[in-house]
Specification:
- The longest helix is centred in the middle third of the chain and has 32 residues.
- By secondary structure, the protein is mostly helical.
- It starts with a helix and ends in an 11-residue tail after the last helix.
- The protein is globular, with a radius of gyration of 20 Å.
Amino acid sequence: MIAVFHRQSLGVTGIDAATRFGVGSTALSTLAMLQLLVYAAMQIPVGVLVDRLGSRRMLLAGAAVMALGQLLFAVSADLVTAAAGRVLVGCGDAMTFISVIRVVNVWFPPRRNPLIVQLTGILGQFGAVVSAVPLITSLHAYGWTPTFLWAAGLGGVALVAVGAGLRDRRPERAPAASGVRAAWAEPGTRLGMWTHAATSSSAAAFTLLWGYPFLVQGQGLSPRTAGMLLTSLTLLAMACGPLLGHLAGRFPLRRSWMVLTIIGITAGAWTLVLLWPGRAPVWTLGLLMVALATNGPGAVIGFDYARTFNPAERIGVATGIVNGGGFAASMSVIALIGVALDLRGGYHWAFAVQYPLWLLGAVQIMRYRARRRASAPLTPAPAPA
């Protein structure tokens, strides 16, 4: 929950950050892009370390690094210092989710795993709730530095909670290189990676950076209304998660069709908003929030593929590949939106950069689903794709 808060704290403060550092859309997107770049680049190394060291040590390290990053961001007065803070946030964030997923994989039975992972994601989304309206309110009431100082203090809460409450099983050690090669060679891992990339990138770009400016500057909403829409997106995602988790566990043969449906719904909702003449009415933006709310739970199905088709000793690195691919896609979308805004100056053109990724993702999902079904199972009794 605290990691999600740190991750998304830049998104709702984007307009204030641009004013504070005196930068445009492209430079502002660089902050979010650097955070996600580090997050994505750290996925495989962190996955190897989680498989070797266990979740508890990595969670403690991640909480400390994220707190340091927010502290640096709080006192930053220039873009370079702010970028260093976001890099640390991305690094600590990378250590967190893979570690939590491994806890779930180790301690819960396989049939319950999809639902438990979705419930874990729901608890994490409370961090997104706190990063919306409360963070905006604090920023306007108390200013930049006090707001991000108390945000950094949440890292101490995470350290105490993990140190006092988490007990870790000793991980089975496996050669790092062979684990990475084997995980990448498994078609199910790449099916999970493309699932994560195609489903998560739109909602990630929206919540991490461009959603709040789009709603306020592009659609003319008040900051409070925009914050409430972002909060509703999170709450809807929390409601959607258990349903998708239950369905993925009960109907494993239909997981890829669930993913393709989510991609289609998301593309359709964006098409409605972007093609609406002038500013879109609130009800269309509400439909967009509903569509985007399916993205996060849909992306979690990618982790279920990693678990299904990889043995326990390489779950961490397989999860890292899936997560890294998803956030690499999100980073690309964030950067392309920023460039398009500076070149064209309109949000409608900027958000259209998402369509090629959706098309590519859908094609790759179909491709690796076919390859996975044509492969001999590599783990005992895996669920079909």
